[in-house]
Amino acid sequence: MTETPEHVLVLNIGSSSIKYELLDMTGRHRLATGLVERIGQEEGTLTHRPADAEPYVRHEPYPDHEAGMAAVVRAFAETGLALERLSLRAVGHRVVHGGARFRDPVLIDDEVLRTIEDLSVLAPLHNPGNLIGIRAALRIFPGIPQVAVFDTAFHQTLPPVAYTYAVPVEWAAEHGVRRYGFHGTSYAYVSRRAAELLGRDPSEVNLIVLHLGNGASAAAIEGGRSVDTSMGLTPLEGLVMGTRSGDVDPALPAHLARTAGLTLQQVDDALTRRSGLLALAGASDMRTVRAKAEAGDEGARLALGVYCYRIRKYVGAYYAVLGRVDAVVFTGGVGENDPYTRADSLSGLTRLGIAVDPERNFARSPAERFISPPDAEVAVIVVPTDEELEIAAQSLALVRAAG
Ligand SMILES: Nc1ncnc2c1ncn2[C@@H]1O[C@H](COP(=O)(O)OP(=O)(O)O)[C@@H](O)[C@H]1O
Ligand SMILES: CC(=O)OP(=O)(O)O
Ligand SMILES: [Mg+2]
């Protein structure tokens, strides 16, 4: 018997880009992936990659997300995969900030849209783009269930001691001031895969997971549930990132207002868009930073030192939080591909049972793999994340449950 294919389109939309994947969830394989870049600029680029044909590339202006989405639909049609003929089961959207409201994926309606809009102030690099994309998709795919999958949802299990800031309590009640955490879709996927690789049920394993991409965060996962994570009220707290500072003294904005005359907006903008690797090394992309460091650039060397030192501090902290750690797991573009970051950030931790085997660590491979020595007390594992597959699976499960 041949099964009816179940197609899900996944959209991960930023302020000037649309990343998408079309998955056939029956066989769990990708039919196409793609990216529209530089939306709103004079010339944009669409790169569409069908699974079984040459990439389809277009250079043309995409004045807004609607135009970008229309170009995506066209790219599918011109490469022989008309979306309307596939009868999509769902469109799954990555939404970064869901506040305390969403523990699970939801079908998008006007009220959900309003809540995502209200939360935009807490994720200014992410939610506004997510919203524009959702609205465009609602118009382009009328009648197809649209599902929001939130980065914050997986961290709704954080205990009060981990999510409470020691600040005036009315800020929490009136302004939602607490820690939320992000990259949850990635943590859900990666922690389940890590448990499988360890041959144990997720409820039995304690993990420290390091999601190191453009945005970067760490999470302590106890028995499959997130109990602490390094991002907080917004995706600015915690580790050093491409353009974000991560942890700083909270007195910094007031200090700069008094001494440099900067406005709060200017400081916020600098900490979000002009800090991190970009500030210290002059580049936000890890590959460029590594190349500069190898060429002797002192700023790039310091940036890498600060980046890895911050990760090591969080690993130590989460070891203390968990008490027992079965594995440290690396994921995200940097975590999956940069053996130097993995080695540096776990150096000096042998007393905790954490070590990286140089040969395994430097072996080039895109696959899931152990990089700790064979007899290590704590496993160190690389697990390529797949947020799109997780979003598609969660979206389909919701649509099926909704009948
Ligand atoms: N081979 C590599 N070595 C070091 N860093 C890499 C490598 N490949 C990708 N990266 C880094 O991964 C980061 C992007 O991670 P990714 O998870 O793709 O980002 P995003 O958060 O946008 O999804 C960039 O800093 C990039 O330089
Ligand atoms: C929440 C977040 O930081 O996401 P990204 O890594 O995609 O920027
Ligand atoms: Mg990512």
From TrEMBL:
Residues binding ATP, per UniProt: 19, 211-215, 285-287, 333-337
GO cellular component: a single term: cytoplasm
Residues annotated to bind Mg(2+): 12, 387
Catalytic site positions: 151 (proton donor/acceptor)
Superkingdom of this protein's organism: Bacteria
Location(s) in or outside the cell: Cytoplasm
Single annotated GO MF: ATP binding
Residue ranges of coiled coil: none
Enzyme class: transferase
Keyword Kinase listed: yes
Cofactor: Mg(2+); Mn(2+)
UniProt keyword terms in alphabetical order: ATP-binding, Cytoplasm, Kinase, Magnesium, Metal-binding, Nucleotide-binding, Transferase
Site (Transition state stabilizer) residue list: 183, 244
Family (UniProt): Belongs to the acetokinase family.
Known function: Catalyzes the formation of acetyl phosphate from acetate and ATP. Can also catalyze the reverse reaction.
NCBIfam families: ackA (TIGR00016)
The name this protein goes by in its record: Acetate kinase
Gene designation per UniProt: ackA
